[in-house]
Amino acid sequence: MNADQVFTLDVSQEENVRAAIATIFAQEKRIDALVNSAGMTGPTNRKLEEITWAEYELTLRVNLFGTIWLTQQVVPIMKAQKYGRIVHVASIAGKEGNPGMAPYNTSKAGMIGFVKGIAKEVAPDGVIINAVAPAVIRTPMNATTSEETLKYMIARIPLGRVGEAEEVAETIAFMASRACSFTTGFTFDTSGGRATY
Question: Name one GO molecular function term (predicted).
Answer without folding.
Answer: oxidoreductase activity, acting on the CH-OH group of donors, NAD or NADP as acceptor
